[in-house]
Amino acid sequence: MKYRREIDGLRALAVVPVVLFHAGFSLFSGGYVGVDVFFVISGYLITTILLAELHAEKFSIVKFYERRARRLLPALFLVMACCLPFAWLWLLPEDMVDFGQSLMAVVGFVSNLLFWREETGYFNTAAELKPLLHTWSLAVEEQFYLLFPLLLMLLWKLPRTGLLVLLAFVSAISLAIAQWGAHNQPAAAWFLLPTRAWELGIGALVAMHLHNKPLDAQARGGFNQLMSLVGIGMIAWAIFFFDDNTPFPGVWGLLPVVGTALVILFATPATLGGKLLGARSMVGVGLISYSAYLWHQPLLAFARQRNIVELELPVVWSLIVATFVLAWLSWRYVETPFRHASTVSRKQVFSFSAAGMMAFFAVGTTSWATNGFDGRVQGELAEGLLAVSREKTGQQDCWEAYIKQPFIENACSIGLKKEKADFALVGDSSAGALFSQLEAFSMRRTLGGVDMTLFACPVLLASERKDHSQRTACRRFGNEFREAAVAGRLPPTLIVSSRWTLWLERQGVDNQEGGKESIRNITVANENTKKLGYVEALSRDYAESIQMLLANGYKVVLIYPVPEMGWDVPKHLMKTIHINGELTLHDASISHQVFRQRNARAYAALNAVGDHENLVRIYPEKLFCNSFIDGRCAAHVDGKPLYSDDDHLSKYGAELVLERVIEHL
Description:
Elements: H1 5-23, H2 34-55, H3 61-90, H4 93-107, H5 111-117, H6 125-128, H7 136-154, H8 160-184, H9 186-191, H10 197-212, H11 222-241, H12 254-266, H13 272-277, H14 280-287, H15 289-307, H16 313-339, H17 346-369, H18 380-389, H19 395-404, E1 413-415, E2 423-427, H20 429-432, H21 435-444, E3 448-453, E4 464-465, H22 471-486, E5 493-497, H23 500-505, E6 524-525, H24 529-532, H25 534-551, E7 555-559, H26 569-580, E8 589-591, H27 592-607, E9 615-618, H28 620-624, E10 632-634, E11 636-637, E12 640-641, H29 651-661
Parallel strand pairs: 2-3, 2-5, 5-7, 7-9
Antiparallel strand pairs: 1-3, 4-6, 8-10, 11-12
Helix pairs in contact: 1-2, 1-14, 1-15, 2-7, 2-10, 2-12, 3-15, 3-16, 3-17, 4-5, 4-17, 5-7, 8-10, 10-12, 11-12, 15-16, 18-26, 21-29, 25-27
């Protein structure tokens, strides 16, 4: 196969945006499309080799997999081995379990299936902390390599035109599935082979075309000049203008994929596009692109795990430099030697591969079996935090029941079971977080209540959430609640809590001090949205919902927004103790000013309810902010977390709020 410098230049154009995207540079908001460029290149190169060998009747499946093992496994195993000590030092047990599972999945070439099953959103904060997340693309390629050579060998006797048509048809089907999945099953569309096969297929089609009509390296006509530059421009457009809201990898994926195909088809050393990609610097980066891709995610993920808060810019740039330094070293001293049979024999390659797979599988299995080597977490405080992070609430059982059947008749009881309940707990999971402690308070005071909460469901609103998988249950749940309220069938006192600010602002909190919560945008809409605008329509819903309850004679204990931390509090506290050996109030808190700024519109909406003799307002802000540390909203008191995750109250936090609530029941 004749060497083409511009292909290595394409690799550089792919890997640099991926690294900068994962490093957090917003300019490269679509840098993730570098993976799609890699897929097209892989499809092209593999098919080119297969066609040449099949045409010469020299194809060997054993030799094919030997080449793949030489190319992929040595550097991959090196990076995985280097991850182990840092995982041991810095990962908490739960994260260590996930890491162990990813080790097993990587060596089984199914890590894409693992991350899909874990429902890991590629763009969320949790994904940033997974050292081996990027191996999903290697799994997709390996699954392709497992199937495609065998299929091509079986279909080789078909007429070339028929083979082209068949491959084009399969690629079109894959693209159609990807388009549907990007809008309906985004995680599956992102990670799985059926929705990515068309990208590799485009590369294979390019290879078949060039096999029948070889590229003239000296071709520099106007059409070649134009098409090669258009291809580079299409890739660049995707890199700079796509973002995490772009439905992907559906038809929008055609931009970088077709762009890559155009470059391969028309960029020759004689064209301007070919000269740009064939420049020494581009080729140099392209040569080490595989190792750079392997190193960048573990470096960034472990640094984020270690730093606890968001990485500062100098640290980020240091990690980027380290990525390419390590990439050169592993390319020079690991990748290159293993590629040559004169240095490493076939038997040694397969023996090395088998030994590495078994070793990493054993480590991963042990990590999973020991709950992430949880014996590493030392100290009574850390062990207590670990217990809080693993707490489960009976609330989940209620929610599962509510989704399947009407909730008014099947509402879970809180405290004493009474024929006529004293109160109802109403709202989404923010209200549900109060369930366990409210149960304890109610038993002590001989009160009986019912639970009327459903996760991710603002049952008070006339609006309807459009993007939640349980939207049908949520709609039914809300309608039943409002009908019962108007009919006077609810308990006399209603404790109402919701994550008001999230619904109103439509995105998670960024506390501007390191921690952040990334949530897919939310849409809650009604007939007033177009006329009034989203914020005004939803704000009016808030006020009118509470006013409706008051007008129907209910006493409403309204709980205002709980300060959101933006990071998992028990994990944050454990990690601080695990790494720093101590814990202060300032180690887990957010700025009170940041809280006020984010919640200003939610406060205004709830204040618009107006005064009423049956309305009681509870302000968690007054309990959590400035009470323990000036100018801050605390996440823990003496190591006791006030939250069970980033925003839901733990039993300790719930107790603080309910002490103010219970006196009004």
